Amino acid sequence: MSGRIRLVLALHDHQPIGNFDGVFEAAYQDSYWPFLDVLEKHPEIPVALHTSGSLLEWLVEKHPEYIDRIRMLADRGQIEIIGGPFYEPILACIPRRDRVGQITAYSRYLEKLFGAPVRGMWVPERVWEQSFAGDITQAGIEYTILDDFHFRSTGLRDDELYGYYLSEDEGRLLKIFPGSERLRYTIPFADPQETINYLRQIADRFPNAVVTFGDDGEKFGTWPGTKQHVYQDGWIHRFFDALKANSEWLKISTLAEAVDNVPPICRIYLPDASYREMTEWALPVGKQIEHQKLIHERKDTDTGWPLISQFLRGGFWRNFRVKYPESNEMYARVMQVSERLQELSSGETPRERNDLVAEARTELYRAQCNCPYWHGAFGGLYLPHLRNAVYQHVIAADTLLEQAAGRTGHWVEITGGDFNLDARKEIRIASDRFVAFFTPARGGHLYEFDIRSINHNLLATLNRRPEVYHEKVRQAGEHQGQHDENRAVSIHDLVAFKQPDLHKKIQYDAWPRKSCVDHFLQPGLSLDRFQAGEGEIGDCVTGVYDTVLRRSNEQVQARLSRHGKLGPYSVTLTKTIGLERGAGQLEITYELEALPQNVPIHFGIEFNFAGMAAGASDRYFYDAQGRQMGQLETVLDLAPTERIGLIDEWLGLDAALEFSKPTGIWTFPIQTISQSEGGFEAVHQSTMVLPHWEFTAPEDGKWSVKIGLSIDTSAAQARRLREAATVS
To answer: Is 534 one of the annotated active-site residues of the chain?
Structure first.
């Protein structure tokens, strides 16, 4: 060995499924391409490079010159290609069969594309559970990188982290490198000499050490302020020059070179963990606040803090699905399709349908991309286009599997089962056009409504709920300032506001923002008060409904009923949801019984429409006469009418509600105040539409209304035909 210490530089480049093409392109121009420009000029500096499959497929299509350049650098030994699960899923969010399948499929893709063997992999978000060691090695991988936080959690000291360890599951051995948290914060934010000084201290004390840096490639140009800092101000050239200037004792290595020349330190079994910040984000908000308070109070005042902090733990990644029920809805839907795929794959599928099964597997893997399933310093779950992408691919996979199973023409079915993994039964109404899920045990809500023709879930909604950073937004108040875009800071330290007065828009929801949400409201209640979450006097919003399912070859129905409260009165509410074979609408009938006499009644049924963007002239409301009534973020208080529609011309979607009894209608946007890499922002999550009736019950105490929820995607289908004709 020519030096006394090895430094491994491992970069992880990723853009999620569903991200905007302009975001991909900006990251390419700001980070990926300029980094290779610099790297090529420093042939003495090798790196390990991981590129997620979602990003790599985009690069293959949009920038083949980048692929050629990577291949050239790999051929000359300057880049080690490392793999991972194809579409960057959190391994804890997918079943074992899909872990092995995704890793294996991506290794084959990379080896075919670059002609180099894939020995190592990147663990998405470094979310780790010990059983993953067996899955990873079963997929043919020798080694990976986690955070030194994982290793400290076993009781290791800092001076025991300079190398790599062996871990094992079911007799399979995996080599694991601890990535340095210290280097994650100095590279590229501190002066290069600070990193050199840190490495020199290690080299002086621990000859033959290996120190690993593993972090996002977007830190080199895409994160705010880093493009100027890294490239224009020359940080990266100074860094590489500093590494070369110290080559007498510092060797820049790849993971493969380190494994081939340095023995493992010893065996280790790591606890369930991720990087430190992720474990904090996974905590419930109240515990996050307590955790931050504890650190703030003790870190700078308690001399024993270094000893105490090594035993401090955050949360468990899987609890994001508890913290955010919408994440669990996506997870449960993807699990359904994964299980169906497994059944078809292991059964007797006609050869001519094998291509459908293979295509469905790719769509399923894309739906497992991790970013929309959690939330931290990045938008993640809060970004509608990322959630929509999950549903787009899982709905496509579901439809392909129906075709592979031999279903053709018009069909309809209704089934019951625990579809959202809450130990209660839900209802699934499905046809060749739609898939609708209802929760009788929680308000009888329509919580997912998939439109197969455009692969869109009209109820990919998100509730407004407390987040630990909301207090920071409130404190900023009227004094919020703008972040200096020319100053490079860690994404974890960034404070910026993308719109003014966000503190005035913070509001929380008391019930799920879904559809068929049943409200008994105060008579005379105003739109402003309802919008503020006030005025509910019933108990049907999240109450339990009894269910009867009816089915025939031509039609299916779910009849949900509840004996509930309207203020001090007991009433009966029944809603029947029906779908006919080949029909383009859900038929919903509401029946109220045992209504009190001579008492004013105010009844409303909430619908939410998600994935239909706000702030665009081609997304708008229209009335019964077809007249436009404003964009989809418009607050409306409409006089009684028999119809309201919502148009999204970009999606080619026309969704309409028709009523057998004229109804007043309230509409308003559901906007979250959330955190993303660009700062705090208001994000449109859904459009709330509430038809509401004020009346006095007739003598028999009964009242009813029929509602048609119709879906027209003919515009989208016509556009596809035009595009196909243009291509041909």
So the answer is: no
